[in-house]
Specification:
There is one protein chain. This protein has one domain. Helices cover 45% and strands 26% of the residues. It is built from 5 helices and 7 strands, in the order H-H-E-E-H-E-E-H-E-E-H-E. The longest helix has 22 residues. The radius of gyration is 14 Å and the shape is globular. The relative contact order is 0.18.
């Protein structure tokens, strides 16, 4: 039997994920140097901060978004990819952790300056277009 959660749009699930888990995600990502941690909301997988960068390195055309929350002194960058587009990666790479709505892969570490440049470009892109923000809180 399908629940109401199963029928919710992916965007609603993403906002709920951000509202309920963004602090723990941000804490995990600050220390994250070599893991791509992704969260599933229906037909999309989402990465935040370092994991978002890892996903963007693998899929350069991945959708990006920013989260501007009063709970954080900084803007969080996220990326999203359709499950159907991510399936080939999943078939060719072994997850080190897997749950129904969470998956974790070990990946090659990034150069901090490259990540910083990428992050600043994404934030600038969306701050120039305020409609790009997901405002929570």
């Amino acid at each position: 039997m399908r629940s109401d959660y199963d029928n919710e749009p992916c965007g609603v699930k993403l906002v709920r994920l951000i509202n309920t888990q963004s602090l723990s995600i941000a804490k995990r990502e600050i220390k994250n140097a070599n893991k791509m941690c992704l969260y599933r909301t229906g037909e999309y997988w989402h990465g935040f901060e370092h994991s978002a960068y890892f996903l963007a390195r693998i899929f350069p055309k991945v959708q990006a978004f920013v989260v501007n929350s009063p709970n954080f002194p900084f803007t969080i960058v996220g990326t999203s990819i359709l499950d159907k587009d991510f399936k080939k990666y999943q078939q060719n790479h072994d997850a080190i952790r897997r749950k129904e709505d969470y998956i974790e892969y070990e990946v090659s570490p990034f150069a901090p300056l490259e990540y910083g440049d990428w992050h600043m470009k994404k934030v600038k892109l969306f701050t120039e277009d305020v409609d790009g923000f997901i405002r929570v809180g």
